[in-house]
Design brief:
By secondary structure, the chain is α/β, with parallel strands linked by helices. It has 8 helices and 8 strands; from the N terminus they run βαβαββαβαβαβαβαα. Strands 1, 2, 3, 4, 5, 6, 7 and 8 form an 8-stranded mixed beta sheet that branches. Helix 4 (112-123) runs parallel beside helix 5 (143-153).
Length: 240
């Protein structure tokens, strides 16, 4: 099996990442990535880029040194309805859109029911492709409800590699990721690993995630990073 995709990465445009678009793409080339996503933080994240940055993404090359680059956004889930911080007319032009909760920054965690409503509301947005790092006990959700919504709306759940590293600040991530993958296996539904790289050294990083998934008995055929053509069918750029 060849690991070919990394769709969750950030550049200096996000405000707290270290490298340029070109440097991050070159790192992806070196790692053997063939389908690569740049998903800088959307406009309500403190210090990130403005609306004009996303309006100009169409001007960037879609292929670079033999790899395909998807240009998009990591949206902020803003409220218990699942609203996101990009207007629909701009969002639908993104090649890829990840929606994540950033607790205490753009979102205030509520009850399990409220947090679940926030995530499922984002899932129901037709231009959201992936839900990012949904594994933090500081933002408890009903995982079965979330998985069912993801299946119904053809939306992927991310296994965030940062959530499995030793220095992760999120709470009880391993327990929660175990819940996610158990439910995905039960429903024969795929996942996608995201490096969430903020520097060139972490582009394509997957060691922690792959070890965890293997230990849990998760089948390779449900890890879409191995299958870029299947993965593309979930992305805005390729949806019919």
């Amino acid at each position: 099996m060849i690991y070919q995709a990394d769709l969750h990465t950030h550049t200096v445009a996000s405000g707290h990442a270290d490298n340029t678009v070109e440097e991050m793409i070159e790192a992806a080339v070196r790692r053997g990535i063939t389908l690569y996503g740049i998903t800088d933080h959307s406009i309500m994240m403190p210090g990130t880029c403005k609306k004009e940055y996303f309006e100009q993404l169409d001007d960037l090359k879609q292929e670079y040194n033999g790899i395909e680059v998807l240009y998009g956004v990591e949206l902020n889930i803003m409220d218990y309805k699942g609203s996101v911080d990009m207007e629909t007319e701009l969002l639908k032009n993104m090649d890829i859109a990840i929606a994540s909760i950033h607790n205490g920054i753009c979102y205030t965690s509520g009850s399990i029911a409220e947090n679940t409503s926030a995530v499922t509301g984002a899932i129901e947005n037709p231009y959201v492709n992936i839900i990012g790092h949904m594994d933090d006990d500081n933002i408890p959700v009903d995982y079965e409800t979330v998985i069912n919504a993801a299946i119904e709306n053809h939306t992927l759940l991310e296994i965030n590699n940062n959530s499995l590293t030793e220095n992760c600040w999120r709470k009880n991530t391993r327990k929660n990721i175990e819940k996610i993958i158990e439910l995905c296996m039960k429903n024969n539904y795929p996942v996608v690993i995201g490096s969430d790289a903020h520097c060139i050294g972490n582009v394509g990083r997957n060691k922690e995630s792959l070890e965890f998934l293997k230990k849990s008995g998760f089948p390779d055929e449900l890890i879409l990073n191995y299958y870029p053509e299947r993965l593309k069918t979930f992305m805005n750029k390729y949806r019919e």
